[in-house]
Amino acid sequence: MTEAVAAWQHAGWQIRPIAMVERSPFVGAARLTTKTLKFAVGASFAELLDDRDWVVAVDYNMYIDLSKLASFLGQYEGQAPLLLLDWRHWPGNYSLSGTECLLREMRTMLFKWKGYIKGSRRNCESWMRKMQREHDAGLLLPDYYDLTILFRNLRHPRSPDVTKVFERMVEHSREIERDQWLMPYYLWQQRLVSSVSLVTEKELKSRIGFCEIGHNPTYRSAGNSSDMCRDPCNGYVCPAGWSTAAGRSDRCRCSCRRRDQQGSRASGQAAPLSRASITSVPAQPNQPHIHAPSASAPAAALCPAQLPCNRRFACPPGFIVTARQDDPCKCKCALPGELARYGAGHNRTAT
């Protein structure tokens, strides 16, 4: 038994061996095993769920404060069979529909971040065409979900319907490597969309300390060298014993790292920073849309006006590089119509 396993057991965790799921022609064994545990944990460990109210699945290197988890979930008791993270924290535009978000992410990964779907690319292309046809026929999915984390209420009356959705997702995940692309459609088929509760990344950070503590080597594998942001951690605070740091594989994403593991990368504990008020300035033709600080904004809480979009930040075809309107220290890709709707002088804050 390794020292790490012993430490987990000493903290009260039950360590269970996992039998690997056989790979499919399109998805590897490790990935299929992860998805089976994520969506069908009851099939392997039914005895562990008999007296449980919630299942929390974390599918990334994330920190959560377990001491705060019960009180956080208590406010959703009886409200919904699923509590899911709103994906729109990625583009920073909370006016997008779920269908727009789904198609946007699919196009981005098919044409830019190809490492995610290299084993099932043709199946992914086929699924995107199906979603586009459904959209053209009138299907409008209101929300899109970031399945980095999900919370399932086992005591909700509609929990059996969630089981049906998850069974379909496990089966379809043998053909497509991105389960996020499947969830909205299968929830809609089971008439569960209106029963799902959404939570924002901001709320998860404030309520249970949700933050990244590691890095995924494949994350943005097609574009991480050109996605340069000066200070993505401006305004964020990590739990005690952790420090903020830009992601190793994604310089535009903030993460939390243990101080004793950072070595020369240590950046110190971040102090709380208030978000300064921001005013927009018009973008010049063929130039990134940028933000400038208002006269009353404290300079220490802002990024230089020309960052972060001046370092060869690449967007997929049809998208325009623009600074996020709720955070000038982060760059994003936007559709031209989005800039037309929320142009100069309109400051939007994601909540």
Secondary-structure blueprint:
Elements: H1 3-10, H2 29-39, H3 41-44, H4 46-49, E1 54-58, E2 62-63, H5 69-74, E3 82-86, H6 98-111, H7 121-136, E4 145-153, H8 159-172, H9 183-189, E5 197-199, H10 201-208, E6 211-212, E7 242-246, E8 254-258, H11 259-262, E9 278-280, E10 291-293, E11 320-324, E12 327-334, H12 336-341
Parallel strand pairs: 3-5
Antiparallel strand pairs: 1-4, 2-6, 3-4, 7-8, 9-10, 11-12
Textual characterization of the structure:
The chain is α+β, with helices and mostly antiparallel strands. The chain has 3 domains: 16-203, no CATH class; 222-265, no CATH class; 278-341, no CATH class. Helices cover 29% and strands 16% of the residues. The chain contains 12 helices and 12 strands. The chain has helices spanning 3-10, 29-39, 41-44, 46-49, 69-74, 98-111, 121-136, 159-172, 183-189, 201-208, 259-262, 336-341; strands at 54-58, 62-63, 82-86, 145-153, 197-199, 211-212, 242-246, 254-258, 278-280, 291-293, 320-324, 327-334. The strands form 5 sheets. The chain has a 4-stranded mixed β-sheet with strand order 1-4-3-5. The longest helix has 16 residues, at 121-136. 30% of the residues are buried. Residues 216-230, 263-307 and 340-351 have low confidence and may be disordered.
